Amino acid sequence: MKNREQRSRSLNSIIKTTLRLQVAAESVNSPLTQQAIAQAAQLLRAGGTVAFPTETVYGLGANAFDAQAIAGIFLAKQRPSWDPLIVHVSGAAMLQKVVASISPRAQKLIDAFWPGPLTLLLPKSVAVPAEVTAGRALVGVRFPAHPVARALIAAAGVPIAAPSANRFGHTSPTTAQHVLDDLDGRIDLVIDNGPTQCGLESTVIEVSDHSITLYRPGAISAAQIESIAGAVSIYQPPANRVHLPPESLPSPGVGMRHYAPKAQVIPVALTDGPELAQQSEWVHAVEAYSAHSACVGVLLPTGWPLPPAFSGVRYDWGNWRNDGELARALFAGLRALDNQGVEQILCPLPSPAGMGVAIRDRILKASRPA
Fold first, then answer.
1. How many Cβ atoms are within 10 Å of 88's Cβ, its own excluded?
2. From CA 261, how far away is CA 263, in angstroms rounded?
3. Which residues of the chain are in CATH 3.40.50.11030 domains?
4. Rg (CA), the chain
5. Contacts of 26 (CB under 8 A, 6+ apart)
6. What is the mean pLDDT of the chain?
7. What is the pLDDT of residues 115-129, one digit of tens each?
8. What is the DSSP string of 112-146?
9. Phi, psi of 219, deg, nearest 5
10. Residues with Cβ < 8 Å from 129, sequence gap 6 or more?
11. What strands lie across the sheet with 344-348, from one edge to the other?
12. Which of 35, 114, 181, 233 has its CA 20 to 30 A from that of 272?
């Protein structure tokens, strides 16, 4: 195992290949899966970096109590130190080691939505290095529902800090191959369990005695949270942030530009109305952009038309009326179109309801200029 002095050097000069271990979530107790999890857990305890599946996206994990191991995440991802990480736990006992306190409102949400795709920002314990939280007093923590993720954390015996397993700012990974496309040779190991089920990162909220602030929308909606713990306010970044020097962010996922492929992402806003009318608006938008560029890609809802003269690249996004299906395929579609070498990617914006809120958030952040 590489010693800590070696890990302070450039990862590119140390790691030549990233080990890929395939497992089956439906047979998490099988000898083959248990062997892979044991190997990954040993790496984590020794200060290594392991990419693993969750129900949201693939995460890049390291021991959350080991500042040098955490540095490996930032180095591999080329992630700035001002962007905090989320810590993944295996249950209540491990949570107590990560946070200093849990308010009654937070406990209600934990009881309602864990394990699952909800991250809570809570007061951190002294055991959590400042590097994890970008120097802030709150730590993002969640208990994932994915059986492989849960087995890995339990086997490692330590909480795992894990942002998405991609280069900083790039499109999030929903398969092991996406991880390797960005990080092969820069991390120790990836556990391959096929595509993730949700496809979008967790909902992130800050819970205090008097308020709940939503920083990043996800599969758990604001309405669901309100039904359990009361009113939710939506975080609004400072209007002048773009002109300010980088500083520690209040939460993961609130960077101005995020989730972005190499191609320019162009959101296509549609009026709220019958789907046939939306399809007509869509065709006119694609026609207008295609007239100025031959290298256009589209995220195309199933059955939607394109202009007769369209010569670009299409990706079958899924059923327009199924937000869960669109969410699962969003990042895979952006990556697939990027791999085709398109210069622009046109995405129709779903209605701002349910998972549509989170899908719109990712598309709009991916479309912002670098």
1. 28
2. 5
3. 264-367
4. 21
5. none
6. 91
7. 999 999 999 999 999
8. HH-SSSEEEEEEBPTTS-HHHHTT-SEEEEE----
9. -65, -30
10. 64, 65, 66, 67, 70
11. 264-268, 344-348, 296-301, 313-318
12. 233
